[in-house]
Amino acid sequence: MDVSSDPYLPYDGGGDNIPLRELHKRGTHYTMTNGGSINSSTHLLDLLDEPIPGVGTYDDFHTIDWVREKCKDRERHRRINSKKKESAWEMTKSLYDAWSGWLVVTLTGLASGALAGLIDIAADWMTDLKEGICLSALWFNHEQCCWGSNETTFEERDKCPQWKTWAELIIGQAEGPGSYIMNYIMYIFWALSFAFLAVSLVKIFAPYACGSGIPEIKTILSGFIIRGYLGKWTLLIKTITLVLAVASGLSLGKEGPLVHVACCCGNIFSYLFPKYSTNEAKKREVLSAASAAGVSVAFGAPIGGVLFSLEEVSYYFPLKTLWRSFFAALVAAFVLRSINPFGNSRLVLFYVEYHTPWYLFELFPFILLGVFGGLWGAFFIRANIAWCRRRKSTKFGKYPVLEVIIVAAITAVIAFPNPYTRLNTSELIKELFTDCGPLESSSLCDYRNDMNASKIVDDIPDRPAGTGVYSAIWQLCLALIFKIIMTVFTFGIKVPSGLFIPSMAIGAIAGRIVGIAVEQLAYYHHDWFIFKEWCEVGADCITPGLYAMVGAAACLGGVTRMTVSLVVIVFELTGGLEYIVPLMAAVMTSKWVGDAFGREGIYEAHIRLNGYPFLDAKEEFTHTTLAADVMRPRRSDPPLAVLTQDNMTVEDIENLINETSYNGFPVIMSKESQRLVGFALRRDLTIAIESARKKQEGIVGSSRVCFAQHTPSLPAESPRPLKLRSILDMSPFTVTDHTPMEIVVDIFRKLGLRQCLVTHNGIVLGIITKKNILEHLEQLKQHVEPLAPPWHYNKKRYPPSYGPDGKPRSRINNVQLKPIAEEREETEEEVHLLNSTTL
């Protein structure tokens, strides 16, 4: 199937060909079922002695059955343990199986660290290529080119004869208007070239290499199958295009895509070990560890990577996965440290060296930065989702290359005149985090030396700002506006694009501005009661770099709604262990403010926008609907498609498969009794029948299919029966029709179910699938009526709250769900409801 040509992708977890975003256009005349099994890890088919290839596997854009996969793994483990005492070879195989988990995460960590170092080095070199080139060694970036120069001065440490700008090479001028214009033109040329090459490679070779990848990884870790998303072509193209996208100067980062790169490594290495290649649930344990390794090399934060995997992306995180995630993050960080891509003996570029204490009165500006971060996060999520939705629904989305070129051109044209937007975003964050010491020559450190200070407490006391600082503040204000606008339009374009670094840059800019303002306020008004106790004249009281750090954490928290993992990542990132309390205050404030406008983070919002079947464990279900209200079929739908255990022929089953698109069928005793026997998957039925026709004689269309333990007696002239009991799930999950949906949703979340059958006294009434759950939650958000309407809400669809005798009526039916395409049926239900509640 050509994925790019199918307008209904992505499919939901059950294989139905209607995406979630199309449900409101299609009414309710559909049903689809999923298969789940507790005991399907036993022998798969009776018709052959060995399992048939393909039985028990999953199609693309389907959801795995966690229960069946865990049972398969337990059966495999029991089989290995039972054989390990038979011979030395079996014992060796048992040891190999036990250590395969550690081997695969070790390989994943090694590959992730090596690729991250390669990406960092290549991105730095290509970023500097926009401004010039090193003639003595073409593979050196600007900083490395001037390391060995003897002609570099302290004031102009970034200038050396070996480094030539494009204006010097082309027109022979280092200064003047002509030089500026030539460097401007070459900057735009290289930015457009890198962006065009990146989007072209993504479009031609690996469409899945675009974007951050974290929303899709969250969905995959929840059990969804997206073939090729973690494949070798995606890994290769994402690695190359990530370097190009970062070098182009777009308002994006490489940290989010590094998680995707690490998960690609984990997926590829998992195929080397049968324990993981044949079990989708076990493979997701490796992917959880790989995501931890990705954050470890992205931020130099191994512990933060483990917490990020636990808090943000993982759906199933047992204790052994925690240990292996920690080990994978350790190995990846060790490899990156060995490569030393930044030349500073650190894992990251912006490591702070100051350890100035913070004071209690500073909590107020820290909390203000948290409020700003929450407001920024809420604004960004709404604006970016609105733009992405418009891109999907208009012709503009059909020209991804043109969109990338336009965004890159606007970014380059506006960014070049401002030195803070021209800088690589990581370099900008480094400069904003850095405190002003005696060796700093940045305009942010252009303070006037006050010779009238009566007491020198520190080497670098608080000083009045000079003209350079005020000029830098105006440039930072313009850079803040530029970053906010361009990040909204950049995240989601068809190149690898991370969100961590742009969000941190926005927060760092705002934080540095606030820090300088508080610093000057404390200097000029040190006799105020809030400063009097801590800020003496000549004391080093305020550290603006700390405010940049807190602002960066607040803005990233407002966008992603991370809390614990974010604080740990930031203090590992900067080395500022003593600043945990300010970071915690700002991050929690940003989360509270952001949650006031919507509880979804940016990744959950993109999951919902793309229609992925993801049940968020953080979302609360507080409604009072029952399983009977959600199950399919409804009254206007065709009857539930079922199989009988011994009354159907091969031709009957094949006709049912061809005439329906359901992914599984309940098996009942007979049409008369409707008693549930089990559940059979469509894919397993198809494979089993095709294999029986090829490998068994006497199997024809009129052959009786038997799901019972004993074959019923047949006439002597009857063709040979086909026994399919072993592909039958004998213990499907069932709930009664009166089970509250709150419990059903919890079952789906915690057990990872694909479907659940609804019964009444053992008789099958219908089925609830993961798609039905997601559709129901979406309808409740948009169309549910309040449980107890206010007194002035006089609407005749509601019965009065109290009867004529003054006693309260029963509220069991006071919630009316309003399906979109069932207006006629709903009216009948309302009349019945009103009549039944009349006293």
TrEMBL record:
Residues 819-839 are annotated as: Disordered. Its main location: membrane. It comes from the Eukaryota. GO terms for molecular function: ATP binding; chloride:proton antiporter activity; PDZ domain binding; voltage-gated chloride channel activity; volume-sensitive chloride channel activity. One of its GO terms (cellular component) is axon terminus. The chain crosses the membrane at residues 99-123, 187-209, 229-250, 257-274, 286-310, 359-381, 401-420, 472-493, 505-526, 546-571. SMART domains: CBS. One of its GO terms (biological process) is synaptic vesicle lumen acidification. InterPro entries: CBS_dom, CBS_dom_sf, Cl-channel_core, ClC, ClC3. It is a multi-pass membrane protein. The keyword Transmembrane helix applies. Residues 631-695, 728-787 form the CBS domain. It is found in: Cell membrane; Early endosome membrane; Late endosome membrane; Lysosome membrane. Keywords: Antiport, ATP-binding, CBS domain, Cell membrane, Chloride, Endosome, Glycoprotein, Ion transport, Lysosome, Membrane, Nucleotide-binding, Repeat, Transmembrane, Transmembrane helix, Transport. Strongly outwardly rectifying, electrogenic H(+)/Cl(-)exchanger which mediates the exchange of chloride ions against protons. The CLC channel family contains both chloride channels and proton-coupled anion transporters that exchange chloride or another anion for protons. The presence of conserved gating glutamate residues is typical for family members that function as antiporters. Belongs to the chloride channel (TC 2.A.49) family. ClC-3/CLCN3 subfamily. PANTHER family: CHLORIDE CHANNEL PROTEIN, H(+)_CL(-) EXCHANGE TRANSPORTER 3. This is Chloride channel protein. It comes from Pelodiscus sinensis (Chinese softshell turtle).
